[in-house]
Amino acid sequence: MKWLQIHITVDQAQVEITESLLLSLGAVSVTLDDAEDQALLEPLPGETPLWNKVIVTGIYQQDDSETIDVNALISFLNMQLPAHTTIRHDILEDQVWERTWMDYYEPIQIADHFWIVPEWLTPPDPQAVNLKLDPGLAFGTGNHASTFLCLQWLGKTDLKGKTVIDYGCGSGILGVAALLLGAEKVYATDIDPQAVLATRQNAELNNVSDGLFVDLPENFNQQFEAQQADVLVANILAGPLMALAPEFSRLTKPHAAFALAGVIEEQLQDVCDAYAPLFEVTEVEKREQHWCRISGKRLG
């Protein structure tokens, strides 16, 4: 069996209708790719980042006994889409194409005895703390600089027997890491229901579900009412981080350890100023030139 790929380059505003059109014409899968090598900042939880120009690719099953009339298909697409839309096609030989993205992921070493390992790969160091992850579930794989900075901080922080908050949990990578590194309990939250599901699944994958509570913010607030955490980690963006400073102070014990990421260098001073009345910043770490992690402790 072979697979026909139809690649359509469109503006961001046309992505949804193009995707729907390909699916309505029988595509078994639709993927989105950057058409212009445009860098994207890490999104807020629940956001889906898109490039200004996007390649929308539909994949069609091409049976030997019943082949698709490619020219007719492209002609029809041209009639439905704006003039001068770029459409091209190619043929894939038989393969498990829906999982070929696996080839792009490798284990990531965070510290001497701490690795992030895609679930289908063998850990390079079986004796280390190996966090198994399905990178396809939700945002947060350890590849992004801000995620790596938070994992690095967790790896050097004493978490034994501690209660940890993972605020804006995404894939759950930070909360799961905290449990594997010795935390007694992790309370995680995200505004995206898919992130909540992904966090639960990754906790199950790593056999730490018993130590995890994860839910949407309203349920998190009810569950965590009248408690305070020993450690808080939040990998979101500068604006939400600044707005959440009073809430993070309420959620943590005096002298609790904290780490914030998702901040670029130009925003660093503003974030530090927002936290100064409530938290002592003791360390700023940078990675990949402009991504920053701010860490320290809550004031007593």
UniProtKB/TrEMBL annotation:
Which organism is this protein's natural source? Acinetobacter boissieri
The alphabetized list of GO BP terms reads: methylation
Q: What does this protein do?
A: Methylates ribosomal protein L11.
The family line of this record is: Belongs to the methyltransferase superfamily. PrmA family.
**Cellular component, GO annotation:** cytosol; ribosome
Coding gene? Answer: prmA
Q: Which reaction does it catalyse?
A: L-lysyl-[protein] + 3 S-adenosyl-L-methionine = N(6),N(6),N(6)-trimethyl-L-lysyl-[protein] + 3 S-adenosyl-L-homocysteine + 3 H(+)
Look up the domain of life of the source.
Bacteria
Molecular functions (GO terms)? protein-lysine N-methyltransferase activity
- What Gene3D superfamilies does the annotation carry? Vaccinia Virus protein VP39
Q: Where found? A: Cytoplasm
Q: What is its EC number?
A: 2.1.1.-
Q: Which Pfam families match?
A: PrmA
InterPro entries documented for this protein: Ribosomal_L11_MeTrfase_PrmA (IPR050078), Ribosomal_PrmA_MeTrfase (IPR004498), SAM-dependent_MTases_sf (IPR029063)
Does the keyword Cytoplasm belong to this entry? yes
Q: Key word Disulfide bond present in the record?
A: no
Where S-adenosyl-L-methionine binds, per the record, is at T147, G168, D190, N235
Top enzyme category: transferase
Q: What is this protein called?
A: Ribosomal protein L11 methyltransferase
Alphabetized UniProt keyword annotations: Cytoplasm, Methyltransferase, Ribonucleoprotein, Ribosomal protein, S-adenosyl-L-methionine, Transferase
Against SUPFAM superfamilies, the record matches this protein to:
S-adenosyl-L-methionine-dependent methyltransferases
Against NCBIfam families, the record matches this protein to:
prmA (TIGR00406)
